[in-house]
């Protein structure tokens, strides 16, 4: 066991310096991601008891993300990518402070906090995606995302249960609000440490200044279709567990415990898969993630109970990392091909990709709101997730087509091999 651990550490050390710094930066920041993803939504549910407000909060987050992606492109001309990356992490703590300072959770206040959190995610993901693209190649991306997912899920074992029971114990004394404020302070301190780690990297800004384009190679539009299908369920992946637990179970402690149990299984599975798979396995990993999410949604729709919620979360905690483990390398391989083919900056594709995600997010959140207002919140929570999960199954065939064309594009780009026998005869002379 010890020798195996030493082998894994040596393998990590064999990666480039910037690869290691980027991984460690994301590792530190991942400590607060469960808090941002789960307990902010739980706070809105506790304070308002209205799942519609949670979806509105999520929708404003997803509106802020593409706007900030666009703004980030211009700011990269003036500021270091490390500065903007750090700003994204720090803004997550600021957004939580704004949320906790609201005396009443009206839609305006929730919207402002959501937009700030969207800006946080925008700066964080825009620069993180570019750096991950720049610091990895197609051969080590499965390892990179497997390693990241392993760290994320290990942290997701500890943090949710600690935070959940901490809030619940404070709630027992009648002061859950103070508990959330203490957690917010913890988040801000961690983001400072993550920013310090980020500044240790030798990261460089994108060289190409132009990043807004409206016409792309047909190959890119296939990835945009895949991005839209991914966006359909993103809001539900974040807020559905909190809404369902708070409605059907009612305790932050149970929310944290359920999150941690599933994360133990996911952590081990994701590292093994990331370490031992190659590009040829991505479609199988992606398909498994799609099926698990669809199964989770169907179980929740049928049972709609505390048991159903726990099963939903266990399947979800396996589905999400599987989808990410396959999706990001597929996305980056397409960008690798098209940056050479169209001679454009990687950031142009990262920005445009966010537009595809946003379309899907709008449709997914809109489906929930239409069902909630037209029928009931229960109908929305039971069936909106099922609808988008079944629609997302189409992603499998879109991804299959993308991977198939990617192989063809790589063959076209490869230099021709000269298989002719060398001409060893001397030229004739006069």
Low-confidence runs of at least 5 consecutive residues: 416-430
- What is the CATH architecture term? Up-down Bundle
User: How many discrete structural domains?
Assistant: 1
Strand proportion, as a percent range, falls in under 5%
- How far the N terminus sits from the C terminus, by CA atoms, comes to 75 Å
Return the structural class: mainly alpha
Largest sheet: none
Helix content: over 70%
User: Quick one: how many beta strands?
Assistant: 0
The dominant shape is globular
Mean pLDDT equals 81
Number of helices: 15
Radius of gyration over C-alpha positions, nearest whole angstrom: 23 Å
CATH homologous superfamily annotation: MFS general substrate transporter like domains
- The CATH class name reads Mainly Alpha
CATH topology: Growth Hormone, Chain: A
Q: What is the N-to-C succession of helices and strands?
A: HHHHHHHHHHHHHHH
Question: How is the secondary structure organized here?
Answer:
Layout: H1 2-13, H2 17-29, H3 33-48, H4 51-75, H5 81-101, H6 107-135, H7 141-172, H8 176-198, H9 218-248, H10 252-276, H11 282-303, H12 306-342, H13 346-374, H14 377-392, H15 395-413
């Amino acid at each position: 066991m010890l020798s195996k651990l030493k082998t894994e550490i040596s393998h990590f050390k064999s990666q480039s310096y910037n690869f290691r710094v980027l991984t460690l930066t994301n590792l530190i920041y991942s400590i607060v991601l469960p808090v941002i993803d789960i307990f902010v939504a739980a706070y809105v549910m506790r304070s308002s008891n209205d799942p519609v407000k949670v979806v509105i909060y999520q929708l404003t987050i997803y509106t802020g993300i593409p706007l900030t992606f666009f703004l980030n492109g211009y700011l990269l001309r003036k500021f270091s990518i490390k500065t903007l990356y750090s700003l994204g992490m720090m803004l997550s703590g600021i957004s939580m402070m704004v949320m906790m300072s609201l005396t009443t959770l009206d839609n305006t206040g929730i919207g402002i906090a959501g937009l700030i959190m969207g800006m946080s995610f925008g700066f964080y993901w825009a620069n993180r995606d570019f750096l991950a693209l720049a610091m990895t190649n197609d051969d080590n991306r499965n390892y990179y995302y497997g390693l990241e997912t392993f760290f994320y899920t290990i942290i997701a074992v500890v943090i949710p249960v600690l935070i959940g029971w901490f809030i619940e114990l404070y709630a027992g004394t009648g002061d859950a609000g103070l508990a959330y404020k203490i957690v917010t302070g913890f988040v801000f301190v961690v983001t400072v440490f993550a920013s310090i780690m980020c500044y240790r990297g030798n990261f460089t800004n994108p060289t190409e200044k132009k990043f807004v384009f409206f016409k792309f190679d047909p190959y890119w539009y296939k990835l945009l279709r895949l991005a839209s299908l991914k966006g359909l369920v993103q809001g539900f992946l974040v807020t559905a567990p909190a809404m369902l637990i708070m409605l059907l179970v009612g305790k932050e402690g149970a929310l944290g415990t359920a999150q941690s149990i599933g994360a133990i299984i996911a952590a081990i599975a994701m590292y093994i898969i990331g370490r031992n798979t190659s590009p040829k396995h991505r479609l199988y990993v992606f398909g498994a993630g799609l099926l698990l999410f669809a199964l989770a949604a169907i179980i929740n729709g049928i049972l709609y109970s505390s048991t159903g919620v726990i099963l939903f979360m266990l399947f979800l905690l396996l589905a999400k990392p599987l989808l990410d483990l396959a999706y990001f390398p597929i996305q980056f391989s397409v960008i690798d091909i098209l940056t050479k083919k169209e001679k454009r900056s990687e950031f142009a594709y990262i920005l445009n990709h966010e537009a595809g995600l946003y379309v899907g997010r709008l449709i997914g959140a809109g489906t929930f709101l239409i069902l909630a207002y037209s029928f009931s919140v229960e109908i929305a929570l039971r069936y909106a997730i099922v609808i988008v999960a079944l629609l997302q199954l189409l992603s499998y065939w879109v991804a299959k087509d993308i991977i198939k064309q990617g192989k063809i594009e790589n063959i076209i780009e490869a230099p021709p091999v000269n298989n002719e026998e060398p001409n060893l005869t001397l030229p004739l002379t006069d």
